[in-house]
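Chapter review: from sequence to fold.
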Amino acid sequence: MSDSMIEQSAARLFSENVDKGLLEKFETGAFPEELWQLAADSGFPLALADEEGGGIGESWAAAYPILRGIGYWQVPLPLAETMIGAQLLSMAGIEVPEGPIAIVEQGLGNTLSASGNVDSLTLTGELPRVAWARHCRWAVVSLATEGIALVDLQEDESVRIIERTNHAKIPADGLSFDGVRAVARAANPLPQLDRPVWTLGALARSAMIVGALEWLLEQSVQYANDRVQFGKPIGKNQALQQQLALMAGDVAAARMAVLVAMNDAPSANARDCSSTLFSTSVAKIRSGEAATRATSIAHQVHGAIGFTYEHMLNFGTRRLWAWREEFGSDSWWAERLGQAAIEARSSGFWPSLTQRRFDRGIRTA
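The token string follows.
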């Protein structure tokens, strides 16, 4: 599938099927099954999975319109998580199951531990926030030393789901594993990434943030041109124009950082990810910072009406507030990037910028 076909397909599917009514219904607890099936029929969940595993085998750069579209249209589906889970499973030689897939990284905000051997691996621990867990039959778990494992979340009483949501009322459920058996296990298919789920999850969130930021900017500019006060559009106010210009600059910078990271991300046909961690760090930092400033400006432009549930603005800003924290906040990634820069010392700083990586890497532990 060509890049233009993916972009056109995503835009058509999301724009025609996601509206305020669907989002409001979703926030009452109704999962949009029909929308998921449409996305599945378009091949989106398997966009990053290799062809031998039944996927499309696209690169992250080619799949960018899907991830960006999730943010732009506020798509209430676990598409990003399923795309990442399917990619890791297929690259590891594990059959990709049907349906939505949750993703988990061991040891980052959870107490997950693994025991047993290659043929019988069991997982135990508390995972406080796992996106979309209640709607997923399967979970791909990235383990520090045991590679990746596929877990059936509906296996038996060894899995307990505690329903929670994030700022955007998107499921961010607690999981409790009590000796749950891994259905399948394999070595990490991306050995250059110690934490593949965490890193690729941050990259996906960055792309989704960019989509939401672009929508937010368009809404703010449109409102500033339409809202008339004292006989003229408020967009004619120079101070407000300056704020919108700052917002536009943030959006552009975040978009460029994400596009660079997309090109540095591994695919089924190009597994080199020596620059993935560095570029993803920059993308998550830049998009998170942009989200903080842009949401503030957007709500200032819209005034009181932007804070009402009836106005569409809140569906975008609440997602931005949630996504900037997931898979590591901008400050979390900035700390790791700073540590790597210090360890590389002055002799390693310039090469790190031109090569987009620190030779010693960025520790995510």
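Two observations follow directly from the output. The mean pLDDT is 94. Strands lie at 101-105, 113-116, 121-131, 138-143, 147-152, 159-162, 172-186, 228-229, 232-233.
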